[in-house]
Design a protein that fits this description.
Oligomer: heterodimer
Structural class of chain B: mainly alpha
Largest sheet of chain A: none
CATH class of the largest domain in chain B: Mainly Alpha
CATH architecture of chain A: Orthogonal Bundle
Number of domains of chain A: 1
Number of helices of chain A: 13
CATH superfamily of chain A: MetI-like
Helix content of chain A: over 70%
Order of helices and strands of chain A: HHHHHHHHHHHHH
Strand content of chain B: under 5%
Shape of chain B: globular
CATH topology of the largest domain in chain B: MetI-like fold
Number of strands of chain B: 2
Largest interface: A-B, 99 and 102 residues
Strand order of the largest sheet of chain B: 1-2
Distance between the termini of chain A: 37 Å
Low-confidence stretches of chain B: 1-13
Order of helices and strands of chain B: HHHEEHHHHHHHHHHHH
Distance between the termini of chain B: 50 Å
CATH architecture of the largest domain in chain B: Orthogonal Bundle
Chain lengths: 276, 305
């Protein structure tokens, strides 16, 4: 009886999930390998002929290898901003948790929450970036991603620092470690699990970011992968196969990350729920 | 550096030294690098937006015009529409994510076959490019050639025109948002369900409770922290949502699926920087007015219980 139910409910769920979740992805893949004419019908059927390689080469070559530039830019953007987010976020989370009597604690906590809730003011940000020469530059966008992602990282780090016994700090301090050595040689290595979580969650978020590059990094030389879709949308309006090949290509990095870091992603994203 | 060590043998001396060093070991300047980035690129623009929203602004000069931008915001029908749409979009997406997320989590933590596979497929859309999902669903939701309506036609239902029908456009985008985001709500609920002690269900079983009573009397109340998180997270995301709407409808047809975030972008593109910034302030106030009281209300009940 119970095992029958187990198969019945599970079987139904799998059946439904195929339609709701797998078919849209299958649609992307199948359209990406079709020729231009049969892709234009938007129908969900087996390709009459396979053009995986042709489409791939064509997408990559479009507009002077724009997609290659975009992948390079997005990689630099993701690596640089995630590195900064880890170091800066861990420093704040560490002091915030360890030294609650500091007069800055209340203010810092308030700004962390503000950073989570307040939608960034777009045009004033552009104005500030222009006066610092950061507008339309990749390093400007890197700093933007850091500023917007800090709150979430700080929350994760603060929660994890609380689980590291303070006796460890004291031992290090008695052995003569200054704050920098204490943090970089004692604490940061112990934060490894949460560092992995922050890296994975933030790199997916930043790699998939569309809005911020759209506002703060306009221009053809600076495209990031998400903007290639936007730029190609008009150009590819008649060639769905290439547009979907592009979607397929930029989905691969998150897919790889998901396959390897499934657990950390889920842990990081549910971190808020445990606290309640 | 050597002070603490030379004081070593005497316990009292060591405690004093340790206490004196505590502040120095967790120095406030550790905040500094983060504070500079956050302050310059987030706080400063936010504060500046309060001023620039009161101006007609070209980035080079700003003429103070008082509340004219805000008056325009609440008078122009398409801007008011954007405000209402933002609320609808936020409430619909977060409501559906709570309901569907909870049901999926109950299903995926129960004893069924294929759990690992189901968890993976439900969560994966969370990680996929929003714009990519949007473009794919624009093709799937095509009124005549799209797969969704072709499938519906096979079972004799005439599907709506989804994105091209002004009545449905906003809700169609909201549905895709739920499709993409429900995996996050599901894993949050799953973490909540797993942390419920089995003793409660044991006790309920002895008292002869039905599955239905179990859900209403044990699972639902104990999932409240998870529900609060899902509501707050999806409301913050939903009210600020831009990329999916922009990728799927660009606020169309007409202005029927415009939200404040897309209005901000459109006014920015058109060069109305003051008005665009006023939109930002409106969005800020709207999000704060909804999220702050809501989270205080939801969390206060939590403490009382």
């Amino acid at each position: 009886m119970n095992s029958l139910r187990r198969y019945l409910v599970g079987g139904t769920a799998i059946f439904v999930s195929v339609f709701v979740f797998l078919v849209p992805f299958a649609f992307i893949v199948l359209t990406a390998v079709k020729d231009r004419k049969s892709a234009a019908t938007r129908s969900f059927d087996w390709p009459t002929s396979w053009h995986l390689w042709d489409n791939l080469v064509q997408v990559i070559q479009t507009r002077d290898y724009m997609l290659v530039t975009a992948f390079v830019n997005s990689t630099i953007l993701t690596v640089a901003s995630v590195t900064l987010l880890v170091v800066l976020g861990a420093m704040v989370g560490f002091v915030l948790q360890r030294n609650p009597s500091s007069r800055w604690t209340g203010l810092v906590n308030f700004f962390v929450l503000a950073g989570l809730i307040i939608p960034p003011a777009v045009v004033p940000t552009i104005w500030v970036m222009q006066s610092f020469g950061l507008f339309k530059t990749l390093h400007g966008l890197i700093l933007i991603e850091v500023a917007y992602g800090l709150s979430f990282s700080v929350l994760l780090f603060r929660a994890f620092v609380a689980t590291i016994p303070k006796e460890l700090d004291e031992a290090a301090i008695i052995d003569g470690a200054g704050p920098l050595r204490l943090f970089f040689q004692v604490i940061l290595p112990l934060l490894k699990p949460v560092v992995v979580t922050v890296i994975v969650v933030q790199s997916v978020a930043i790699f998939n970011d569309f809005t911020n590059p759209l506002y703060y990094l306009p221009g053809k030389d600076n495209v990031t992968v998400q903007l290639t879709l936007y730029n190609f949308q008009s150009q590819f309006s008649t060639s769905y196969n290439l547009l979907f090949m592009n979607i397929l290509l930029i989905t691969i990095p998150p897919l790889i990350v998901y396959l390897f870091f499934n657990r950390q992603i889920v842990a990081g994203m549910t971190a808020g729920a445990v606290k309640g | 550096m050597s002070d603490a060590i030379t004081a070593g043998g005497v316990t009292a001396g060591r405690t004093v030294a340790r206490r004196a060093r505590r502040g120095a070991s967790y120095p406030n300047w550790f905040y500094l690098p983060a504070a500079i980035v956050f302050g310059v690129l987030f706080l400063l623009p936010t504060i500046a937006s309060l001023f620039f929203s009161l101006t007609r602004w070209t980035l080079f000069e700003a003429n103070f015009i008082g509340l004219a931008n805000f008056i325009q915001f609440f008078r122009e029908p398409f801007l008011v529409q954007g405000l209402i749409n933002t609320l609808i979009y936020g409430v619909v997406t977060s409501g559906l994510k709570v309901i569907i997320g909870m049901l999926l989590a109950l299903l995926l933590t129960s004893d069924i076959i294929g759990r690992g596979y189901l968890r993976a497929v439900v969560f994966f859309p969370v990680l996929v490019s929003t714009v990519g999902v949007g473009i794919a669903f624009v093709a799937l939701m095509h009124p005549t050639q799209g797969m969704i309506n072709e499938t519906l036609a096979m079972v004799g239902i005439k599907g709506p025109a989804w994105l091209t029908d002004p009545r449905f456009a906003l809700y169609s985008v909201a549905l895709v948002d739920v499709w993409k985001g429900v995996g996050l709500a599901t894993v949050i609920y799953m973490a909540g369900i797993v942390s419920i002690p089995q003793d409660y269900f044991e006790a309920a079983r002895i008292d002869g409770a039905t599955a239905w009573q179990n859900f209403w009397a044990i699972t639902l109340p104990l999932l409240k922290p998870a529900t609060v998180t899902v509501i707050i997270l999806s409301l913050i995301g939903g009210l600020r949502s831009f990329d999916l709407i922009w990728a799927m409808t660009r606020g169309g047809p007409g202005f029927t699926s415009d939200v404040i975030a897309s209005v901000i972008y459109k006014q920015y593109q058109a060069g109305f920087y003051g008005l665009s910034t006023a939109g930002n302030v409106v969005l800020f106030v709207l999000v704060a007015l909804i999220i702050v009281p809501l989270s205080m209300f939801l969390n206060r009940n939590e403490v009382e219980r």
